[in-house]
Structure formats: C-alpha cells, structure tokens
Amino acid sequence: MHSLMVTSSLQQLGYERYELASTLGVSPVDDQLRSLTAEFEQLPVDPYSSGDGRYRRFGRGILLPWNGEFMWMPETVADMPDGTTAGLNDYRQGEHNPEFSGVVRHMPGLTDAIRRNSLLSRLIQFDFAQTTWTEADSCWPVHVGVHLLKLSVDKPDGRAVASPDMLHQDGEPYTFAHLIYRRDAEGGENVIAAPEHAGSRPDALAAQDILDQFVLRQPLDSYGVKDDLVSHYVAPVTVAPGAAMAERAILLIDFTPMTQRV
User: Fold this and answer.
1) The whole model's pTM is what?
2) Per-residue pLDDT at 107
C-alpha cells in the first residue's frame, strides 16, 4: 500500500523525468510499442480541437492500491451520425482548463487493442508505483485516466496546439506523460514552473521562475508531475525544416483516489 512519504524528486520538487525504454527494457522494435504506435497513427480528431491539430482517445480504469489489480471501466455507447455506434468517455477538468472551464467533454474511447496492450499495463503500474497517498486514500480504489493525444501538423507553415496553451494544473493529483513517437517535429517543449504561475505563458515568466524545460525526443522519454506542487506546459508543435508534416504522440496517465466525499 502506498503510504505518504517523501522518497523522490516527484514528491519533493513536484516533477520527475524518466527514460523508460531503458528502465523497462523496451526496444524500438518491441511489438507492444509498435502496436501503440499504430493506434496513435489512427487516432480520431479531438472533437473539441477546433482545427488545432489535436487527435485523441480517452479511457478510464480503476486500480486497487492494496493488490495492484487494474480493470477498465465501461464506456457510454453513443449513436453516431453515420449510423454506427461508438464508445465515449466523459472528461471533466472542472475549472483547471480555462479553455473548457466547467465543460464536460465527451471523448472517443479506447479500442480493444489499446486496452489489451501489455506495455500500457506496465506503464500504468510503473507510474502508480511512483505515487504516494495517505493511508486513508490508500483504502479506496484509484481512478486512472488514460489519454492518447497526438499533435499533428499537415503543412509546413502550420502548428498544432495543446489545450490549454498556457501553464496549468490538471486537477488530478498525479499525471505522467510518455512519448510514443516524434516525427519531423519542432517545438513541443515542456516547461515546469511553480503552481502560482498557472494561467501564465512561459515567456511571461522570469528565468528564475522556470523550474525546468526539456523536450521529449525518444520513445518512452517520460515525466511525471505532482499536481499541487507545480504547473506545467507544452509548446505548440511545428514542422521541421524540409519536412511536409510533423507529429508528436504522447500517452498521458493520471491518478485520482475515489475517496468518499459527503
């Protein structure tokens, strides 16, 4: 059971970086990594993207802290305009995303292939092992949010923008980001700052207010944030010189205890 203790820079500083290809022994030709890559290549457009070049799927699961068991939650089945049905999941950020403040977004759900992917299962378990909780929270199931998010630019002078396009906090106690691939992309720089800078753009901050900035470049380059200790940002993606298009594919995994609140 994960008790509350300070054991890492994630707990002390609010963020930590990882090179999980090495840590987990995953090669570039790993079958499960290739399978995840293929899923990102076929992501549907984020229905709330408004032409910003975002593609997304979102799923929800439950993890039991006392034995590590993980299970997927069911999706809402919706009728689509073309007469087919599709699984959707509600995504709520409350007031944490100013671009969708108080809005419940309905995101395309995960495919069966994603749910069965053993590398995704390993990443969920690795990420959860980095988190710490009070003993009271450890007695409740933990909600696990899984986002497949791609920023894609299809013309040399275009750009793809994450939401929100500013330093922000997510609302979930912990969020982890894992790069799946990066192709002919410029930008996409991650910035970490103190929580009081949420709502600001990094270029408005003094240099000493930025805790870290880095670019995820190789598959499974990753980082995690403890939401109450930092704010974070990812810059827009543009096309590298000489290329026709660019993509940056990220797997996001977040954790929230399902503690009773009355």
Assistant:
1) 0.90
2) 82
